[in-house]
């Protein structure tokens, strides 16, 4: 009886261990969860950008009405509303800079993990798995390159919105024609930036959906190959 109990005790951990997914599958699942988080972030960013585009369009209309009215209090109120909108844009941009930087770092980690898989496949003498993983490595490198570009673009947008904030702040409450013309040009630029951000987010969401599709395929391949 004691011998049977010992055999069962040794067998249970082995059975539990064999039921655990291999590291490759766990990595695939982590990447899919991250894909879903990034797509949710894309959807939130798109809603925010559409809201911003509507706000800046409205501010431009109100600005023109205030200029036409020639009422200093109306112009001062518009300046206050524009500065508040820009301040909110700076906060939002700061968050997106951190988010894009984190996504770029994760993508680079995925490249390193995939590169290790290719090395392991070659060491194990598994050329077919190595070929699949090399294709996945190419996909991950492309995704990492896209994420680095997104991070650089977001940093550039952040720098520009900060400069707009400084310049508009220096012109606020001024009613001379050069100042009024320059303030209007800055609001027009904010409208252009908001429209461009919508297009960029649409592009990024397509990239994230494609990456999720590729990660699903990689998970299926790893399962089929016995991982």
Label this structure with key terms:
about 230 residues; mainly alpha; 5 helices
Architecture overview:
The radius of gyration is 27 Å and the shape is rod-shaped. By secondary structure, it is an all-alpha fold. 22% of the residues are buried. The chain is 93% helix and 0% strand. It has one domain.
Global outline = rod-shaped
Q: Helix- and strand-based class?
A: mainly alpha
Percent range for β-strand residues: under 5%
Number of strands: 0
Secondary structure tally, helices: 5
Write the layout of secondary structure elements.
Elements (H helix, E strand, L loop, with lengths): L1 H18 L3 H47 L2 H52 L3 H45 L5 H48 L3
Outline of this structure?
This protein has 5 helices and no strands.
């Amino acid at each position: 009886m004691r011998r049977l109990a010992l055999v069962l005790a040794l067998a249970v951990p082995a059975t539990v261990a064999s039921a655990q997914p291999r590291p490759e599958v766990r990595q695939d699942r982590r990447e899919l969860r991250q894909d879903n988080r990034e797509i949710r972030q894309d959807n939130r960013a798109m809603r925010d950008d559409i809201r911003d585009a509507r706000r800046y369009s409205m501010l431009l209309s109100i600005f023109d009405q205030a200029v036409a009215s020639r009422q200093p209090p109306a112009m001062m109120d518009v300046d206050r509303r524009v500065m508040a909108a820009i301040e909110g844009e700076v906060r939002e941009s700061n968050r997106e800079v951190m988010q894009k930087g984190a996504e770029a770092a994760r993508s680079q980690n995925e490249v390193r993990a995939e590169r290790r898989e290719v090395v392991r496949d070659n060491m194990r003498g598994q050329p077919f798995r190595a070929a699949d993983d090399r294709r996945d490595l190419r996909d991950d490198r492309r995704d990492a390159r896209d994420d680095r570009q997104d991070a650089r673009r977001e940093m550039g947008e952040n720098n520009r919105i900060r400069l707009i904030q400084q310049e508009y702040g220096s012109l606020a409450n001024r009613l001379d024609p050069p100042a009024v013309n320059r303030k209007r040009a800055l609001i027009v630029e904010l409208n252009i930036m908001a429209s461009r951000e919508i297009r960029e987010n649409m592009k990024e969401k397509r990239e994230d959906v494609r990456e999720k599709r590729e990660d699903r395929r990689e998970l299926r391949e790893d399962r089929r190959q016995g991982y």
